[in-house]
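idk why but the lab printer keeps eating my pages so im just putting this in chat instead. protein + magnesium ion:
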Amino acid sequence: MAKIGINIATGSIQKEDAIVGIDLGTTNSLVAIVRSDTREAIALKEIDGLSLVPSIVFFDENNQAQVGTAALDKLLTHPERTIYSAKRLMGKSYGDLSQDSHFFAYKIHDDGSDALVKVQIDDQFYSPIELSALILKELKSRAEHILKMPINRAVITVPAYFNDTQRQATRDAGKLAGLDVLRIVNEPTAASLAYGIGLDPKEEKTIAVYDLGGGTFDISILKINQGIFEVLSTNGDTYLGGDDLDRALVMHWKMQLEQAGITGNSSTLLQALRLAAEAAKKQLSTSDKASAVIEGIPLEITKTEFESLIQPLLDRTLQSCQQALHDAQLTAAQIDAVIMVGGSTRVPAVKNCVRDFFKKEVNDSLNPDEVVALGAAIQADILAGNNTDMLLLDITPLSLGIETLGGLMDVLIPRNAKIPNKAGRQYTTSKDGQSSLLINVYQGERDQVAHNRKLASFSLRNIPAMPAGLPKIDIQFLLDADGILKVSATELRSGVAQEIEVKAQYGLDDSMVEQMLLDSLTHAQEDMQTRALIEATTEANLMIETTEKFLINYAALISDSEQALTKTQIEKIKQAIQDKHKDAIQKTTEQLNEVTRPFAERVMDSALKDAMRGKKIL
Ligand code: ADP
Ligand code: MG
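predcted complex ->
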């Protein structure tokens, strides 16, 4: 299959361009490429010599975004308009984040549903996908500036533990930034490739990747066999990183300041301390002592003192390593190589404790905050077919998926996935007593199936009558080495099953693939809006249906005024649906929840009492 590049600006197809590797990090992001002349992977640096772009987005009063270094000091001056750690929000619902909400200084919109989160600034809402797209856009334009050529294709890395939704969100962010995302690669896999581990198909190795970044710690155990990376286990702490090392020193110095008579918790004092602590920490990575002056008081710290301050944090990372080994059913001695990733592994005490734990020298010769991007660039180079030593595996040119409610495309096997491949997901019915389910199989990159290519259609019949949402329908895609796609559907509660075979590439030529890719990029923005509208509408319709059923079933327990109020609210939702106004649909649906809550709770209470008296609910 030919590799296709698309110039978004001109809409033309180009066969020659660089494919970049992108590390989209929680704290910092960066771009790397493999140089065509020296075949060496390098991180792209601006004139200032910096390769890292802080993963921060600031919105001014006119909702214009500033990204990266330009947004850094806005963290202090405009905390409520400056978004950091957007990666932590990717593919998450508000419920997923409720434990962590204290971590964010900006407003995360709680719409009370299990929909994906948004960040609110003034009256604007930003999805984590849009925020990540802004960071990717900045990286893209930086790379274009440095390389003096258009950049349209990328390999982007994600943590090994990212689930399907989070990976898809990352792909969508790339698309929105005008990037054709050739592959999503696990961060530890990229780090391994950067060290040349996994490039030789004959190589068989088990490795550990220790990644201590700004705010997160990940340990991954990977098995490499014939160029395939398998994640055996992952562990870590999503709130443990360089920031915590800084905090340990801040606490220490704060005590010294208090002894010198300087008290108080003003944010200026704390911020000054935090910046001084981070600088001192970095200095201690190469020297034995560091110092600072805060409010006229000289402060000092020796490397030994610092190491004892952070020992408890290091111990926590080692406990995670222990657990990861345990989950992979391995001992430290069975690990062939240990790779150090993340800016915080520059701290000598970190390296020492990891070396002692695994009882072997660690790989730390590459710049730890560049190593993931370097590996992504190497993966990009392999996909570009430039690395002639590497066997290029067959890949699917277009995504394969099925149609879900509202005519949306749900991708099971993403484009550029290796062949053979298999993937599965569970679905359910949307109507009570639904006895058959029509499964439509599509190929393509657009969000609405109507814009994609229909491959096949079949029905799963004889599903026993059950309330909507109860059947568990497992759909499996099996793509074999010849490009034959086998789709099977099984209702797991009853065992009813059906399958079909299609030749996915039949009648598909390069120019069609090119056109479909181009369309998906040029329509990325509107596709995403349409998808959001359809999802909101589907959700609202389900809610209306449930509520109307409830009003009928429990009529005796609901007052006339409650009935009337609910019906008026339902009318408002229907109007919003008719207006195709996504925000209004979400808002009115939310309000319906408020309107029905009092009597819903009352009815449930009474139903429960009835049940306890031995009567049947319903
Ligand atoms: P992420 O993967 O979360 O985006 P990075 O890998 O870029 O993060 O790591 C950022 C962290 O590395 C910050 O906490 C920073 O203070 C720390 N760091 C960077 N350089 C050094 C150094 N020389 N010594 C110690 N820590 C460092
Ligand atoms: Mg990182």
